[in-house]
UniProtKB/TrEMBL annotation:
This is YjbQ family protein. PANTHER family: UNCHARACTERIZED PROTEIN YJBQ-RELATED, UPF0047 PROTEIN C4A8.02C. SUPFAM superfamilies: YjbQ-like (SSF111038). The lineage of its organism: Bacteria, Bacillati, Actinomycetota, Actinomycetes, Pseudonocardiales. Belongs to the UPF0047 family. It comes from the Bacteria. InterPro entries: UPF0047_YjbQ-like, YjbQ-like_sf.
Length: 136
């Protein structure tokens, strides 16, 4: 197994950050093997999604999360900015992991699929992402 951790600066706004290029760069170090790419975010307030980006789906996802998890005072988890408790519920809906098949060193994603970090936590501007390759 090969593994690597990178840092992503998400800033102080909600974001869907496309990690596909970073995934491809990491897979470049494993040669042309088949296997599984596992992506993990070791944070209690972020998740990973496989979705289309750039055509509005990323903004639609953030809008849907704002509808499902409003940033208001309903949350019992109270520290941080207003509504921060919702960020701690996010990983139950957008899990902190994603696994993608790898064929001949390339992710077997669909035409419009991207691997994305979903971060609604405006209080934590830097995220760690772990890539692990498990040979097949």
């Amino acid at each position: 197994m090969r593994s690597e951790v990178i840092e992503i600066r998400t800033g102080s706004v909600e974001v869907v950050y496309d990690l596909t290029a970073e995934c491809e760069r990491f897979l470049g170090s494993v040669g042309g093997e088949d296997g599984l790419l596992h992506v993990w975010v070791p944070h209690a307030t972020a998740g990973l999604a496989v979705l289309e980006t750039g055509a509005g789906s990323d903004d639609d996802l953030l809008a849907a999360l704002r509808d499902l998890l409003p940033a208001d005072n309903r949350w019992r988890h109270k520290h941080g900015s207003k509504g921060h408790g919702r960020d701690h519920v996010l990983p139950a809906l957008i899990p902190p992991y994603a696994s993608v098949p790898v064929l001949s060193g390339q992710m077997a994603l669909g035409t419009w699929q991207s691997v994305c970090l979903v971060d609604t936590n405006r209080d934590n501007p830097v995220r760690k992402v772990r890539f692990s390759f498990l040979p097949g």
